[in-house]
Amino acid sequence: MPVRSEPVTDAVETALARHKERPGALLPILHDVQHTLGYVPDDAIPPIALALNLSRAEVHGVVSFYHDFRHAAPGKVVIKVCRAESCQAVGGDTVIAHLKRTLGIEFGQTTADGQFTLEPVYCLGNCALSPALVIGSEIHGRATPDRVDELLRAARSGA
Amino acid sequence: MKPIIYVPRDSGALSVGAESVEQAIAAEALVRGIEIELIRNGSRGMYWLEPLVEVALTPGGERTAYGPVRRNDVASLFDAGFHTGAATAREHKRALGPTEQIPYLAKQQRLTFARVGVVDPISIVDYEAHGGWRGLTAALSLDPMAIVEHVTTSGLRGRGGAAFPTGIMWKTVAGAHGPQKYIVANADEGDSGTFSDRMVMEGDPFMLIEGMTIAGLAVGATRGYIYLRSEYPHAHTVLNQAIAAATVKGYLGHNILGSGRDFDLEVRLGAGAYICGEETALLESLEGKRGMVRPKPPLPALEGLFGCPTVVNNVITLASVPFILAEGGAAYRDHGEGRSRGTLPLQLAGNIKQGGLVERAFGITLRELLYDFGGGSLSGRPIRAVQVGGPLGAYLPESQFDTPIDYEAFIKIDAMLGHGGIVVFDDTVDMAQMARYAMEFCAIESCGKCTPCRIGSTRGVEVVDKIVAGTEREANTALLRDLCDTMVGGSLCALGGMTPYPVLSALNHFPEDFTKS
Ligand SMILES: Cc1cc2nc3c(=O)[nH]c(=O)nc-3n(C[C@H](O)[C@H](O)[C@H](O)COP(=O)(O)O)c2cc1C
Ligand code: SF4
Question: What are phi and psi of B481, to 5 degrees?
């Protein structure tokens, strides 16, 4: 097994220190690790399993069950675009197609320059202002291909 | 006196630029040397008008609305004197008049949403000033059974989807024995077309806290969890701030208001799994496991979280409780009709001109909601179908728009109200594709326990594709119906068991979409 890299060890230890004693600690721990690293690396699993007295398979089973947890590092900016009914009703599919074409990637992929990762989401609770998407930490409503272009430009220039 | 300017921090408002409007207002006021007080409220629920900016000239004074305000409207609003109540401001192109007189709002019956969009969500003083904690104070003077009695009298049924009488569930938990009991708020709000839970959590979080505390007093639970979907980061922040504030002021934690009773509350985040809105999967998830549905019995009321008696209620169910305790169960029951008592916060979504939150007593029709409130479709084209009750809800054609909002009336037409979401589609919708999507969604979100749900849904996608492509159309249509039967009969929970509703309603009401090619 490869030696755990320092950031992974740090992230896991910090998360364990914060949550280990809480009932049902696994999800809060995984959220913390992903928050710090952007994903849940495979080598984070053994120490978590050990600390919670679970098997590695159990922890792995939980990580893979939930759509939120990534298995590989994402790009600098994660884009989550809604696929659900309300957004479909007002052109969400066009927005999704535009994003895929512009970025040259499919769902779950990251652009070659490491800038953007595109993920589907099933409802952002912004259904009165569909279509909706999240870029980084910001939510946007009434999305159109033109508006998406503006937002991507702003995200690229770090604005 | 400083004018008070309200700019929502509700995530819907943020999604159309509320943050930049707030910054522009602050900057403009500074440049002009005008003193103002900025308050970040929740949303009034008129999303087509967001960012909706309100001005009050005195604390508690009448509020005047402007919307939708763009960043570049701000200078002209100051020029027109919107901060002084000048007559010229009434002529501004964004002027909407007194907020409470906007027909969309004036025609509602806001019992649960009375404070949402009105108050500063994290000000406990504001909450108190607007009738907050009256339910809790009443509950503290009652014995537990009398609290349950109020809820039973109110006729309140679960707003999460299953519409189970809340009083009965509470009574079961109250009568159960265990070393610990829990109150769990189901804030997973996974249905597309719904956002009422989010609005409450972002706009009036103390109401949920109060409702959960009352539930704790009623059943003898001293710990509560809010299981919040991870897609709601703003709600997360607000809830944590509100819990901290309530704890400091003695409304939560040890010895609540000197009563000798305890109630501790914590927010836990989900991780993007629709099935974790199902109550038993939610409990598994809270315990740190995969969100696999548990067979019932045992009922969560008897053996729920960590094996202990547990109340699991939707956010809106719990948020309805403070009113019921403050005003009495009968005051709530006096709204509504038949076995659907009280009000339902409905959510107008999708292709609708005036999307937003409409709280009305049961009995209003779908047509009134779509046209009188919603103003028809956003595109201006005819409304062809609406899906009520989320991804497991039926698609209804125009001929069913006169159905009243009433649990039993919906069951009668093979539909359900669910969490009150109404997603509108115009005549460009392809209903065969919507049926396909329903099957696909079930395949993506299945917990995997039952074969008809896990495998049947994937087959369902293929079969819809064949029907649309014209491959042995009749045989495949029969196969699709068979598949739906198997899913209804062989699924442990409503994900597999009710996905057939959108599929079959699309097929039955819009058969022409399946035979276009
Ligand atoms: C697949 C599935 C998803 C569900 N999602 C939610 C949800 O997101 N929020 C919710 O309150 N109830 C949801 N429910 C209903 C819950 O299982 C349960 O009935 C509810 O939490 C009980 O609370 P209530 O009586 O206050 O409605 C879902 C049910 C199923 C079968
Ligand atoms: S019906 Fe589907 S989601 Fe529900 S328990 Fe069965 S497999 Fe899981």
Answer: -65, -40
